[in-house]
Amino acid sequence: MKLYLTLVALATLSFHEAYAQIDCTELEDGVYGWGCKGYTRCEGGEGTVVDCTPDVFNEEIMDCDDPENVGPPCGLFRDCSELEDGMYADLHLNCTAFYTCQDGIFFGHNPCNPGTVFNEELQVCDFPENVPPPCGTKEEEA
């Protein structure tokens, strides 16, 4: 049994290394192979995997950052410069949260209670059957 567990552990480590690293030997120093939760930093031909958890990767600064500072799809920041003052359903989060804009400034996210979505018409979180698409399933009344 110990041998089996040892082999599984080694296989897991090998699998992780094979997919986590970028071959940096021929690459200039910089950030490569990034996703929302991490990236590989190449320096002097050596690669280092950087885990951003609980933060996310911010392409603008090429480093980990608070999700509130990062736009979609990885972060929560939303551009309010063209929006009127109000609260808006976050379509990137399937309307399970909303964000507030005031004077063109993003004022953060608020989650809805589980099982509810944001109703922009009423400006509250509500059950999907009471909310029109794209957030809910309420059909138009004839």
TrEMBL record:
SMART domains: ChtBD2 (SM00494). GO terms for cellular component: extracellular region. One of its GO terms (molecular function) is chitin binding. Keywords: Chitin-binding, Disulfide bond, Glycoprotein, Repeat, Signal. Residues 77-137 form the Chitin-binding type-2 domain. It holds the Pfam family CBM_14. It comes from the Eukaryota. Residues 1-20 form the signal peptide. This is Chitin-binding type-2 domain-containing protein. The lineage of its organism: Eukaryota, Metazoa, Spiralia, Lophotrochozoa, Annelida.
